[in-house]
Amino acid sequence: MNRLQSFIARIFKIEPARDRTVTIIEPHTFRENVLRNKIWYRGDSAELEQYFQKTARWDVEKARFWAAHAQGNVRKMHSGIVGTVVDRYKDIVLADMDSIDFGENQKSLNELWDKLYEKSKLNDVIGEAITGALAAGDGAFKITADSCSEYPIVEFYDAENVDYMYVHSKLQEIKFYTTYKNGKKDLRLEETYGHGYIKYKLYDDYGKEVPLNQLPETAHLYDLGIEGNIMLAVPLKILVSTKYKNRGKALFEGKTDVLDGLDEVISQWMDAIRMGRIKRYIPDNLIPRDPDTGELMPANPFDNDFIALGDNMGEKANQQVEISQPQISYEAYVNSYINFLDMVLQGIMSPSTLGIDLKKTDNAKSQREKEKVTLHVRNKIVDALNETLPELFKLIMQTYDLMYGRTPGEYEPTVKFGEYASPDFGTTVDTVGKAKQYGIMSIETSVDQLYGDTWTEEEKEAEVEKLKAEQGIQDMEEPAVNMTADDFHIDLEGGDGNESKSRTANVQNEPQGVPGTSSNSKGAGTDGNLRGGES
Predict the structure, then answer these.
(1) How many helices (H) and strands (E) does the chain have?
(2) Alpha helical stretches, state H, 276-363
(3) Is the distance from CB of 326 to CB of 276 less than 8 angstroms?
(4) How many C-beta neighbours within 10 Å does residue 374 have?
């Protein structure tokens, strides 16, 4: 048996796998990736073709539709779906932003804020921020005080012109980049916003620092400190990138291949329609001629397309114009278009939000269910803005204080968003009320379901407390062994209801007697200490 075991061990010897190093080369830098996402959003066919043809380094990139070098003139069309979806989300979120409030008892402050909001054109800046963060990946708000305006100036820089400096996952600085033309050279201004300071540096094409007075636009800038150790910049990141640390992710990140395929299907479809026009075969002696000069009329592919035939001089020749038209498989192109469009929009937006009905058999309930993808992404955008906008608005008010020589105050703005694609309030009340009646929903959950993003967390907590008080629900401390007997009171009312007295219930220890014996116990004193009985 031992020899058999040794023989089997020699036959089935297993050698563990060895670790191998696999090196993956990223095809593009972060800046190139941001530029590609922005070009998809811009939706210009000429820019798309230039970018993909100039940046294609790998075979998989060279095989793409936009990177292909065609012989002759080939019409390449872009669907424009990226810009349409991003702009649609911007419109949805801005329409749902109901109000900005600095407190119930801050009437003068709210009036001042309304003026600041209008003069600084913050609605346009926030819309630009939503678009920039979804199209490029992330960005940051920059607040500036300048003599050209009596109010703070708010600007948004997208991911292409922003860098973040983190120390142990804590944001320390935000750098903003602006390019200026100086003759034939480009100069780049770097503005560093940190906690309590702003620094300015100017660089040339070679990355060498030059004096700020070389440009009239930057000659008045100088480093300065800020009272209160505040940073007059706020980052905005809606989706988190797993590829680049501490950076955001564009909405259509990872959709390059399906976007390229969708554009190829559309372009082939249009090319088939163009090539499938009616063709006329005209004998040479029947070709239309210019009535003044007698020259042949030139052909073009739109209104005068024909093929000239030589004259047939046969005895039975029939000189006539022949017409033919190829058959185009429209159904195949439509199915390909629908499938690619569905892949492009997967996880991003419901087609019904854009008014696209990909499946004609869907009923109204099914169409509403499709809005859940849009609602999910919309909620992500709202969550990011609920975290960013209150901080931005607080800094704007503090900048306004600094501009007029005041110490930056403490502000607590709240931003309220409405609900999107939700049932009316009455329907929600019926649904939540039934769940509450059946005992399957708590008061906290019912309030949250009823008011959603339209109320702040503080307002929801106050409403929960009111409901509990009205329903006689109180949070009481659980009885414990260390509580004294004097903590318990029994209120007795007199027969006439006018007099009442309170008696203290003293807990006494009365041990049970043993059968066949007599027991005699002494009660506990008023101090609540328990004494053992005598038997």
Answers:
(1) 13, 16
(2) 330-345
(3) yes
(4) 23
The letter for the amino acid at 40 is W
Residue entry with tokens 């980052």: 235
Find where tokens 């027969």 sit: 495
Q: How far apart are CA 265 and CA 336, in angstroms?
A: 7
User: CA-to-CA distance for 107 and 119, rounded, in angstroms?
Assistant: 19
In whole angstroms, give the CA distance from residue 174 to residue 432.
Answer: 45
Amino acid at 391: E
Tally the residues of the chain: 535
Where are any strands of DSSP class E within 87-169? 97-101, 139-144, 153-158, 162-167
**361: CB partners within 8 A, 6+ apart:** none
From CA 407, how far away is CA 409, in angstroms rounded?
A: 6
How far apart, in Å, are the Cα atoms of 519 and each of 164, 385, 423, 524, 525?
Answer: 82, 75, 72, 16, 19
Burial class (CB in 10 A: 0-12, 13-18, 19+), 468: middle
SS3 198: strand
Evaluated on CA atoms 31, 37, 38, 40, the torsion sign reads positive
Backbone φ/ψ region at 495: left (φ over 0), alpha (ψ -120 to 50), beta: alpha
Which tokens go with 359?
């499946």
Question: Cβ(236)–Cβ(249) under 8 Å?
Answer: no
Tens of pLDDT along the chain (535 residues) come to: 777 777 666 676 667 778 889 999 888 899 999 999 999 999 999 999 999 999 988 888 999 999 998 877 788 999 999 999 999 999 999 998 888 888 777 888 888 898 999 888 999 999 999 999 999 999 999 999 988 888 999 999 999 999 999 998 899 999 999 999 888 889 999 999 999 999 999 999 888 999 999 999 999 999 999 988 899 999 999 999 999 999 999 999 999 999 999 999 999 988 888 777 766 666 666 666 777 877 776 665 555 555 555 555 555 556 666 666 677 788 888 899 999 999 999 999 988 888 887 665 555 555 566 678 898 999 999 999 999 999 999 999 999 999 998 999 899 899 988 877 655 566 677 777 777 777 778 888 888 877 776 777 788 888 888 888 887 776 666 666 665 555 545 444 444 444 443 433 343 444 444 344 443 434 434 343 333 344 3
The Cα 179–Cα 202 span in angstroms is 10
Distance between CA atoms of residues 138 and 246, nearest Å:
10
C-beta neighbour count of 338 within 10 angstroms: 15
